[in-house]
Amino acid sequence: MVVEVISVGTELLLGNIVNTNAQYLAGQCAQLGLSMYHQTTIGDNESRLSEALTQALDRSDVVILTGGLGPTEDDLTKETCAKVMGLKLVEDAHTKQRIEEYFKNNIYSCITDNNWKQASVPEGALVLDNDNGTAPGLIIEKEGKHVILLPGPPMELIPLFSKQVVPYLKKLQPEVIRSQMVKICGKGESLVETQIRDLIDAQTNPTIATYAKTGEVHLRITARAGSEDEAKALIKPVVKEIKNRFGDDVYTVKEEETLEMAVVRLLQKYDLTVTTAESCTGGLLSGRIINVPGASEVFKEGFVTYSNKAKRKTLDVSKSTLKKYGAVSAQTAKEMATGGVFATDADTCIAVTGLAGPEGEEEKPVGLVYIACYMKDKVKVEEYHFKGNREKIREQSVVKALDLLRRSILANYKD
Amino acid sequence: MVVEVISVGTELLLGNIVNTNAQYLAGQCAQLGLSMYHQTTIGDNESRLSEALTQALDRSDVVILTGGLGPTEDDLTKETCAKVMGLKLVEDAHTKQRIEEYFKNNIYSCITDNNWKQASVPEGALVLDNDNGTAPGLIIEKEGKHVILLPGPPMELIPLFSKQVVPYLKKLQPEVIRSQMVKICGKGESLVETQIRDLIDAQTNPTIATYAKTGEVHLRITARAGSEDEAKALIKPVVKEIKNRFGDDVYTVKEEETLEMAVVRLLQKYDLTVTTAESCTGGLLSGRIINVPGASEVFKEGFVTYSNKAKRKTLDVSKSTLKKYGAVSAQTAKEMATGGVFATDADTCIAVTGLAGPEGEEEKPVGLVYIACYMKDKVKVEEYHFKGNREKIREQSVVKALDLLRRSILANYKD
To answer: For A328, how many CA atoms within 13 A lie in the half-sphere containing its CB?
Structure first.
């Protein structure tokens, strides 16, 4: 089964945005066992899109088009596909109603005539409800070919694809491909690879692929087999071996579980509450924790103490510590973590203070970050020297803070 | 002058990496005034690459190929290009010498036989020295067409392109292209388009393109002209007209200025400090403000008050308000904003409370968010009904909060 992707959007040809959709779809299709040989990017131009689609239909079984489903005149993906495939556009009553509801609930926007354009679909098309926007996804089948149209914004495309297109594609593909994720935190990619070099060298089925993320390494173990059970049986011993080798560095084996989810799960498991005391990360750490459904059980309150005054007043960091060691120091991090616990009665507090740049201080370079975790009357502090810009330094700090909290819980509470 | 990009690499088709090269090259070519209508991604496969290149040479003047110039057997971009263009490969003595030197200076690698493959070039090709790797860039000219081969790693491609390919392309392209951004917040894409429908319909030079972002719409006005000054003169009246029509909805006309940067700039301008009181956004609002260089002048402290107890204790929200109206209410938002100012002595406080899901409350649906801004002894509260998942609701809340703060400053301080 051969699939290809056509990304539609003049903004891609102008370099205004990076095509993350193509990567996402390519990765997903590879996991499904589909072969991809071509990706094409085209502007919002009817004749060139028409040419590209005709060529794609000639050489591939499934063509996924992204973008150009908006309400404006230059959005013409749907119209062009219908024309190339010889289908009329008809109004879809269900989609029309969904658009009405969408605008009813969105007081800031008002419905304009061109919004109704999104309610027309090629006749016979499968309509995929879009919960995050007004353009529905569409699947058109004709003469053994499958054309899938998805909206361009990743926040709309990803849920549509994972919930509605994946099950559709699975049915087209007889071979079963299953994969299992092992997520590792606290080790670099080359170190991880070195530790499983023998497994990678010996791989045929299942295969092991490594992906480097900020502060994390993900391993995907993928098996092809005649049945689901067979595939699972192939994967199981490899995952077991990897878990043995990495121990607590593995924070999850669940595809959808993020580091913050694993942390919230552990806090829930041991009935702990956490607070955050952030300086350079400025609320990004609490933001990630709170993004986990159910976080309200374990997270009640957090502090962003950016100025020295706020650190003193809110977290009771002593004046002499700030004077002697400075705001970016192990001592300040330690007092912030302690102060956070005492200010909120939480069981644990994770504190971050550092220099995210653009300017460093005398003897303290940009990227110097201290992370402290208060737990069971003790504080553990770690010092990091991160590379990269302001955003990148913060992102790495948040990952290390979550990981320190995770490891502290395991060290103190795991039997 | 029409240019297109062919990205070569099976890792792109498997979704292992995102194609940032295509974005970089597209942006650079747009700035140079070259027209790009196609981008193609192909695996390391001779017949498909050969087909793609033949098609590209047929429809474009310049074809830029990236990737597949490495020393291993599956790297075949150069070989395939030479074949398609009917050119022999010959050894380039200068490149051979550079490869020898590279390995002499690189204690971690040792030279292997296949490295010499990188010293062979299509006869007559212009060789572009690569200071960051062993694969040189190549420019092949034949029958009025220009084929440019660049190594895949961005660390090698970007310096090669900017230092050696840009001057080459400038000579081919006499015309100048300049563009100007206008960023709008608080209006949906279709509403914005309706308001400038006449300008869009009349556009030839400059052109107007609209881009929808979360809670924002960006307009790019692009002109082609014989000189920089001429291009600027074409753009100026259009930008002026758009600013007239949208007034304070326009938050910036600077390409690189984000909404949070515009907010921090206004706070600095009027010498104001801000604090944040966040419930459902959990620190993401303060995180965005703090990500702006110089934010420490205007932001000293923020609060993440997720539980009712934290709202009461830290922000002095009254027990009776929480009981009578609930945590997600205009009244609570108002008291949070007021409490934030009194807790910190800041000039203004922006407060957010809402239901980001996954579960709503009785009579309060997921997506219901109240945003309040305390300024000059008054509090303005807004009610929103956002769509989407937890993350999307938060993201929209943060944008609306930043925009409410921005508009409040303008309303209270702008002459």
So the answer is: 19
CA dist B336 and B326 (Å) reads 13
The position carrying tokens 């023998």 is: A198
Cα-flanking dihedrals φ and ψ of residue B201, to 5°? -65, -30
Question: Which ranges constitute the DSSP H helices of A247-307?
Answer: 259-269, 284-290
**Could B37 and A42 be called an inter-chain contact, meaning their C-beta atoms sit closer than 8 Å?**
yes
pLDDT (0 to 100) of residue A66: 97
Q: What angle do CA B373, B376, B380 make, to 5 degrees?
A: 30
pTM: 0.78
Report helix, strand or coil for A153: coil
Q: Is B36–A13 a contact, with Cβ atoms under 8 angstroms apart? A: yes
Hey, how many other C-beta atoms are within 10 angstroms of the C-beta on B106?
11
Compute the distance between CA of residue B362 and CA of residue A146 in angstroms, rounded to an integer. 43
ipTM above 0.90, yes or no: no
Q: What's the CA gap between A57 and A43, in Å, rounded?
A: 18
Q: Kindly report the backbone phi and psi dihedral angles of residue A19, in degrees, each rounded to the nearest multiple of 5, phi listed first.
A: -85, 75
**A192 Cβ neighbours under 8 A, 6+ residues apart:** A184, A210, A217, A219, A246
Residues in A closer than 8 angstroms to B37, CB to CB, are 13, 42-43, 45, 48
Which residues lie below 8 Å from residue B52, measured CB to CB, with a gap of 6+? A38, B6, B40, B42
- Tell me the average pLDDT of chain B: 92
Rounded to an integer, what distance in angstroms lies between the CA atom of residue B141 and that of residue B183? 41
Give the model's confidence band at B109: pLDDT under 50 very low, under 70 low, under 90 confident, else very high.
Answer: low
The Cα-based distances of B257 to B26, B188, B254, B353 in angstroms read 21, 20, 5, 27
- Return the axis-axis angle of helices B259-269 and B390-413, rounded to nearest 10°: 30
Q: Are B65 and B6 in contact (CB under 8 A)?
A: yes
Task: Tally Cβ neighbours within 10 Å of residue B46.
Answer: 14
Residue A132 to chain B, least CA–CA distance (Å): 5
- Between CA A381 and CA A394 the distance in angstroms is 17
| pLDDT above 90 (res A45) | yes
Report the DSSP beta bridge partners of residue A94. Answer: none
Task: Please report residues of B whose CB lies closer than 8 A to that of A70.
Answer: 189, 212
**pLDDT beyond 70 at A396:** yes
Q: Which of B144, B60, B158, B73 is nearest to B113 (CA)?
A: B73
Residue B42 to chain A, least CA–CA distance (Å): 5
Report the 3 state secondary structure along chain B.
CEEEEEEECHHHHCCCCCCHHHHHHHHHHHHCCCEEEEEEEECCCHHHHHHHHHHHHHHCCEEEEECCCCCCCCCCHHHHHHHHCCCCEEECHHHHHHHHHHHHCCCCCCCCHHHHHHHEEECCCEEECCCCCCCCEEEEEECCEEEEEECCCHHHHHHHHHHHHHHHHHHHCCCEEEEEEEEEECCCHHHHHHHCHHHHHHCCCCEEEEEEECCEEEEEEEEEECCHHHHHHHHHHHHHHHHHHHHHHEEECCCCCCHHHHHHHHHHHCCCCEEEEECCCCCHHHHHHHCCCCHHHCEEEEEEECCHHHHHHHHCCCHHHHHHHCCCCHHHHHHHHHHHHHHHCCCEEEEEEECCCCCCECCECCCEEEEEEEECCEEEEEEEECCCCHHHHHHHHHHHHHHHHHHHHHHHHCC
Kindly determine whether residue B41 and residue A40, on different chains, have CB atoms separated by under 8 Å. yes
d(CA A122, CA A90): 6
Asked if B291 lies within 8 A of A102 by C-beta distance, the reply is no
Helix (H) or strand (E) holding A97: helix A93-104
Strands (E), A144-288: 145-150, 176-185, 207-213, 216-225, 250-252, 274-278
